[in-house]
Design a protein that fits this description.
The complex is a heterotrimer.
Chain A: E1 2-5, H1 19-24, E2 39-45, E3 51-57, H2 59-63, E4 67-72, E5 96-97, E6 103-109, H3 112-121, E7 123-128, H4 135-138, E8 154-162, H5 165-170, E9 174-182, E10 194-200, E11 205-210, H6 215-225, E12 233-236, H7 252-264, E13 267-271, H8 274-279, E14 286-295, E15 301-311, H9 319-328, E16 339-346, H10 362-379, H11 383-388, E17 396-397, E18 403-404, H12 409-419, H13 422-425, E19 433-443, E20 458-464, E21 470-474, H14 483-495, E22 502-506, H15 523-549, E23 557-560, E24 563-566, E25 573-574, H16 576-584, E26 590-596, E27 618-630, E28 635-646, H17 653-672, E29 678-679, E30 682-683, E31 701-708, H18 729-741, E32 747-748, H19 752-776
Parallel strand pairs in A: 2-13, 9-32, 11-12, 15-16, 21-22, 28-31
Antiparallel strand pairs in A: 1-31, 2-6, 3-5, 3-7, 4-6, 8-16, 9-14, 10-11, 10-13, 14-15, 17-18, 19-27, 20-21, 20-26, 23-24, 24-25, 27-28, 29-30
Helix pairs in contact in A: 10-18, 14-15, 15-16, 17-18
Chain B: E1 9-11, H1 16-22, E2 28-31, H2 37-43, E3 50-53, E4 63-65, E5 69-73, H3 78-83, H4 85-90, H5 92-98, H6 104-107, H7 112-116, H8 129-134, H9 163-169, E6 173-178, E7 181-186, E8 206-213, E9 218-224, E10 235-244, E11 247-256, E12 263-264, H10 278-291, H11 302-321
Parallel strand pairs in B: 1-3, 2-3
Antiparallel strand pairs in B: 4-5, 5-8, 6-7, 6-8, 9-10, 10-11, 11-12
Chain C: E1 9-16, E2 19-26, H1 31-38, E3 57-60, E4 63-66, E5 79-81, H2 94-101, H3 111-124, H4 130-136, H5 148-160
Parallel strand pairs in C: 1-5
Antiparallel strand pairs in C: 1-2, 3-4, 3-5
The chains are: A alpha+beta, B alpha+beta, C alpha+beta.
């Protein structure tokens, strides 16, 4: 195993293959596409949080000059949703609205002004129902049900019990429990949602260009909700301005835009405002975690019990998976002999939550790592030592059936301990300053797909023609993470040619093979493997052609730097172009494919929900955060971060470093300042002024280390790199705050008002204790 | 195309007199940098049939630095204040406050007059049309209830300009132009505590310039906000202090973000002659806490804004006295 | 004034990326809409509902401004620069190249605004410190990079110029 610091690898990596388009302004995002002749689509949203829809009258809107189409819930016959078992949402609400901002009607008109006026003319009458904005209220015994088939307003309960919990706690020298509450946060990708849909009435075909991370699911849901044959639909992903899970489910506006295009018999463009983009969010839910941990004097964990309640919002979305992940990801990072997990995914009258970077694992990791830190303090143990006492040994299988084939956490710990000067500095910093640390992990794609079809997890097509250029066709959605670049590198390295010979065409359902999309960090592992397989297949054809031309046997052909020879250093040599020409004889243009499938033994435990958390490889991360706390104003600054991530192997070290920095920073946003806030169910945070993602000013230097554990199944040994480091930041920061000023915050984010309140409480407590002592003496 | 701005007419006068004449009609509004007004118009909380664009009026854009004072035009961009040598020399507190405003691209166009006449802000007001309608509007805009204090009589939206507290501490004077001519008044008289109508300007009046004279020795401004840029102040505190023989000779504390207007803490003259010790700092802390009574106009807790303002006032006094 | 009254337009003369042009614009037209819809310079992005994200940052007479807060008519007789204008014979400028090579752009959506704010900085301060870069880019939000590689990109461009 090697620890690689980006600057010292000698493998700096390559810039993104579409990077020049981005820095020159050539890159076209959905809103930049040619919209000549397009109607403007807009959505009418519910002003109330929970109500029956009594009456809808769109006649005045329809009568307005310039209005081409008006749709309501009556036009939406089919429900949609990302999970086949939980499709309970309509593109436009039917009969009932469940959150403020839920789409109830839509208009396509010749321009924005006309479209907005038409919205004003739509009459909807509501009969209000009680609304619930907190999990506890929604779960109250007398609460009205949001969905009739879900008693107690619980979408899914999970109860998992592994190992002997009682024996574990009995064996502990110290048992502690705490309750933490993490606010709901948002992806807040900078590109607002947008969709351009065109319906051709003569052919009956629909073309949709859109911001999706999941082009195939969108294709599927469009066919479902519009009740169209899938073959009549084409979905194209232009450049996408970030995802982080925001577009990992099909969203109402995408289907609505397509429905408007069909109703109007033409082209409709819809761009949501920033506020609407916030409402259409599917993000990390507000989460309450009660976590209990047993620890021996030497730092060994003996047992863990965890209860998680997620306020999931009004519809199912990814919720079942999120609540399962929250429990499953307690495992696979440390050796814990017994784990009990109870999870509750609760409905509430708020915009539905879903998957966000670090899906499911982040808030439980916060609860876990901060409790470990407090218990280490109590036992006089070093936080690093506690982690080291509980490392796994790969290969291994966890109690819940997760496979761990490569495990570089020990090296991650070493790297950040050394770089941060932990041994010399921890506990010896000036007042108000401190270091904190934590670990985290994440899956490299879910080994069991959401929609099981029996197809491979990933397929890549390669096309080679007279020009000698190799075109890789992939459905994998590049949303800025650099997946197309990864595909190009995987193909080029396997073929032994330069990157300039490779073109990548991605995410056009008429051209590229189906791909499940950009989520759960699946692309590098699955699509990377498929790309390598495809390139190997292509290389075989080229080697055969070279052998034939050189009158040799294929196994004697050596290909290096795009040159084919007989034997190492052989005299007779063919250039790549010559081999291509030879290969095309009699055959013409070559198409090959490669695919990848996760073997069944990786697809998780046999218990109910056991597939969630299953993966072929976990990434691992450790980080140290240095902070300064102003205890007069409660303001926290993050001065420096050291982070190490085991991504198996960095196929593109530059991109890996970028992903590590970005994920750590996103964890910082959640830890420090980001939260959504609802006033009676109205999103009061729905702007970049009130949803406070960090600016560059308070964003620290992040020193990233790459640990390469060479996963046996990963492409070139690689695992995921973009999510694993996120979850470590919040606990590392909150632990650092604890070390700096002696206040253990139990809430996220650590805003100055929360912190000052905690400081005030501690002062009161200290004063009361002092009084008591005085009285006693 | 912003629907809200589609029908607006823009006038671009070259002189103050022309501007005042153009702004006399009902439905006319001045626009300078537009960093507050355009946002509010796009959200539908401010409407205007005519925008009188004063950004081209040279007479509003001068900074005149005198031996012990300065006259700053209402149309001077915030960024110019930040980088101005004379201001930096005589009134560094103005630059200190200016550099905390919004972000560079805003400061490049936003003006002194705009920041002093900034609309008040509230989490129930600075929202979209759909949002406000869904919430039954509010006292400041089309409604009859202040959601912050539903039983109260007035709007509690908070003034959030950063320059005002510094200029109040400097005892600044403003010059106003209107159809009836020019008038001068102390800056503090520009404001009244009503979130719906916090400026004493008559319709069509224009802030021409601010005059400041150096009367005290040391000044400082500190802004409490969650992020290092962009954010409006949760609280902003400007302190002016003159010490004579280790005792307070003059002390002023200007506050923003805590009420519907920026104001000077009252009663500080009682502290003249005192040494700056722990007791005094505690008194300052208490005085600010007593006088700063922020309402729930921000997502951050109102109580926090009060405590933080007091802590900062105390810290700045200690720092300036040292 | 909805309906039949035709909104008032005027002829705007403006130099965009070094070329003068004239277009009829509404009085109330915002620079961002004029650049995107009329001039078709789609690098000027809309990321927020007004003045909060910096994605539409362009240079007006060399000064960074948010195009979403600027009335187009205010640009009469002035120069507007967008990221398209930084190209030299179709090749990326040193600053653009640095953002590309150092991965200052991930999804790329904030990138044109980020580059224009950086360009304004480097023109007045060719060798900025990290903190000066932070101060100059304070209004440009990025959700991908954590800003680390953005600072590296600007530094690389400034070092290349020495």
């Amino acid at each position: 195993m090697t620890i690689v610091y980006e600057a010292r690898t000698g493998r700096h990596g390559v810039p993104l293959i579409d990077g020049v388009d981005k820095v020159t302004g050539r890159a076209l995002y959905t809103a930049d596409l040619d919209r000549a002749g397009a109607l403007v689509g807009v959505i009418l949203r519910s002003p109330v949080a929970h109500a029956e829809i009594i009456r809808v009258d769109t006649s005045k809107a329809r009568a307005l000059d310039g209005v081409a189409a008006v749709l309501t819930g009556a036009d939406c016959r089919v429900a949609y949703g990302v999970l086949p078992i939980a499709m309970n949402e309509y593109p436009l609400a039917r009969d009932r609205v469940r959150y403020r901002g839920e789409p109830v009607a839509a208009v396509a008109a010749i321009d924005e002004t006309t479209a907005q006026r038409a919205l004003e003319l739509i009459e909807i009458e509501y009969r209000e129902l009680p609304a619930y904005f907190e999990s506890t209220d929604a779960r109250a015994p007398d609460a009205v049900l949001l969905h009739d088939n879900k008693p107690g307003n619980v979408e899914r309960e999970v109860h998992h019990d592994f190992g002997d919990l009682d024996a574990g706690f009995a064996a502990a020298d110290l048992v502690r429990e705490h309750r933490v509450c993490c606010a709901e946060i948002n992806h807040a990708q900078i590109e607002p949602h947008a969709c351009l849909a065109e319906f051709d009435p003569s052919s009956g075909r629909l073309t949709v260009q859109d911001v999706s991370q999941v082009v195939y699911y969108l294709h599927l849901m469009l066919a479902r909700c519009l009740e169209m044959d899938e073959a009549q639909i084409r979905v194209i992903k232009p450049f996408v301005g970030g995802g982080f899970g925001a577009r990992v489910e099909v969203l109402n506006f995408e289907i609505v835009t397509a429905m408007l295009a069909r109703a109007a018999g033409g082209k409709v463009f819809m761009q949501l405002t920033r506020e609407e983009t916030f409402l259409t969010h599917r993000s990390r839910p507000q989460t309450d975690v009660v976590l209990k941990l047993g620890m021996r004097k030497d730092g060994r964990f003996t047992a863990c019990a965890c209860e998680v309640t997620q306020r999931g919002g009004a519809y199912a979305g990814y919720g079942v998976v999120t609540i399962l992940y929250a429990g499953a990801l307690l495992q696979g990072i440390y050796d814990i002999p017994a784990i009990k997990y109870d999870g509750y995914r609760v409905y509430a009258n708020l915009p539905p939550c879903g998957a966000m970077r670090g899906h499911g694992g982040v808030n439980t990791r916060f609860a876990f790592e901060t409790l470990v830190d407090k218990m280490a303090r109590e036992l006089g143990l070093d936080p690093f030592a506690v982690r080291r006492a509980n490392l796994l040994r790969a290969p291994t299988q966890t109690m819940n059936g997760l496979m761990v084939q490569s495990y570089g956490l020990a090296e991650c710990l070493d790297a950040v301990e050394r770089a941060s000067g932990w041994k010399e500095r921890f506990g010896r910093m000036p007042a108000g300053k401190a270091l904190g640390m934590a670990c985290s992990h994440y899956v490299s794609g879910s080994a069991k797909p959401i929609h099981f079809t029996g197809e491979p997890h990933a397929v890549i097509h390669l096309k080679l023609d007279h020009d000698g250029g190799v075109t890789a066709l992939t459905g994998a959605a590049d949303i800025g993470q650099g997946s197309s670049t990864m595909v190009a590198i995987a193909v080029a390295e396997t073929l032994g040619v330069g990157l300039d010979r490779i073109r990548v065409v991605s995410s056009d359902t008429a051209i590229t093979p189906k791909d499940n999309g950009a989520y759960s960090s699946r692309i590098t592992f699955m699509v990377g493997n498929a790309a390598i397989a495809a390139a190997q297949n292509l290389k075989m054809l080229l080697v055969e052609a070279a052998a034939k031309k050189l009158e040799s046997a294929p196994e004697e052909i050596v290909c290096d730097g795009g040159v084919f020879r007989v034997g190492q250093g052989g005299q007779a040599a063919l250039s790549f172009k010559e081999v291509v020409s030879a290969a095309l004889i009699d055959e013409g243009a070559i198409s090959v494919k490669g695919s990848f499938t996760c073997p069944v033994e990786f697809q998780g435990g046999k218990h109910r929900g056991g597939a969630v958390g299953s993966t072929m490889g976990f990434s691992y991360a450790a980080q140290v955060v240095e902070t300064s706390v102003d205890d007069a104003t409660g303001q926290v600054s993050v001065d420096k971060v050291w982070v190490a991530l085991d991504c198996g192997r960095a196929i593109n070290p530059l991109a890996v470093a970028g992903q590590i920095e970005g994920s750590v920073w996103m964890g910082m946003g959640q830890a420090l300042c980001e939260e959504t806030r609802y006033l009676d169910g109205l999103a009061a945070h729905a702007s970049f002024l009130d949803y406070r993602m960090p600016t560059i000013v308070e964003s620290p230097a992040i020193e990233a280390f790459i640990v390469e554990s060479k996963d046996p199944n990963g492409p070139f040994g690689a695992k995921e790199a973009s999510e694993g480091a996120l979850a470590g930041f919040p606990p590392a920061l909150v632990s650092a705050i604890g070390h700096a000023i002696g206040v253990d915050l139990l809430e996220l984010p650590a805003t100055p008002d929360r912190l000052l309140e905690a400081i005030g409480k501690r002062r009161q407590k200290a004063a009361a204790a002092a009084r008591k002592q005085r009285a006693a003496s | 195309m912003s629907v809200e701005l589609a029908d607006v007419v823009v006038a671009q006068p070259a002189t103050i007199e022309e501007a005042v004449a153009l702004a006399a009609d009902a439905g006319a509004r001045y626009v300078a940098g537009g960093t507050d007004l355009i946002v509010n118009m796009r959200r539908g909380v401010t409407t205007a049939a005519r925008l009188v664009d004063i950004s081209g009026i040279a007479a509003l854009k001068t900074i005149v630095v005198e031996a012990n004072g300065a006259v700053i035009g209402g149309g001077v961009e915030i960024a110019r204040l930040v980088g101005h040598d004379g201001i930096a020399r005589l009134f560094p507190v103005i630059a200190q406050a200016a550099v905390t405003i919004a972000a560079p691209a805003h400061r490049n166009v936003a003006t002194v007059g705009g920041n002093l006449c900034l609309d008040t802000r509230c989490i129930y007001y600075n929202q979209s049309e759909w949002w406000r309608r869904s919430n039954g509007w509010c006292l400041k805009n089309r409604g009859d209830t202040c959601h912050v204090a539903p039983r109260g009589e007035r709007c509690h939206a908070a003034f959030s300009g950063d320059l005002a507290p510094a200029l109040l501490a400097l005892d600044a004077e403003v010059e106003i132009a209107g159809s009836a001519g020019r008038r001068r008044m102390p800056l503090r008289d520009l404001y009244v505590e009503d979130g719906k109508a916090h400026l004493t300007l008559a319709p069509g009046e224009l802030l021409v310039c601010v005059r400041v004279t150096r009367k005290m020795d040391a000044f400082a401004y500190e802004k409490i906000r969650q992020r290092g840029a962009i954010d409006y102040p949760l609280a902003g505190v400007a302190v002016g202090l003159t010490m004579r023989e280790r005792r307070i000779a003059d002390l002023r504390i200007g506050l923003t973000g805590l009420a519907s207007y920026p104001f000077l803490a009252a009663g500080l003259e009682n502290l003249v002659g005192r040494e700056v010790d722990d007791d005094l700092l505690k008194e300052i802390d208490r005085a600010v806490q007593r006088q700063a009574q922020p309402m729930r106009t921000t997502l951050a807790a109102a109580h926090y804004r009060r405590l933080a303002a007091a802590a900062v006032a105390r810290r700045l006094v200690a720092r300036l006295a040292a | 004034m909805h309906g039949s009254a035709r909104p008032r337009k005027r002829l705007l003369r403006v130099e965009i990326n070094g070329r003068w042009r004239e277009d009829a614009v509404l009085d109330g037209a915002l620079l961002v809409d004029y650049l995107r819809e009329t001039v078709r310079l789609t690098s000027v992005k809309t990321g927020c509902d007004g003045g909060e994200c910096g994605a539409c940052t362009v240079l007006l007479d060399g000064v960074a401004v948010s195009a979403c807060l600027t009335l187009a008519v205010r640009c009469e007789g002035r120069s507007v620069e967008t990221v398209e204008g930084l190209l030299k014979q179709g090749r990326p400028s040193r600053l653009q190249q640095a953002f590309h090579e150092r991965l200052g752009a991930q999804c790329g959506f904030c990138t044109p605004g980020m580059i224009m704010a950086s360009e304004a900085l480097l023109r007045r301060n060719p060798h900025p410190s990290d903190d000066e870069i932070r101060a100059a880019l304070a209004g440009n939000l990025c959700r991908c990079t954590g800003y680390v590689k953005i600072i590296e990109s600007v530094k690389a461009a400034s070092e290349a110029s020495s």
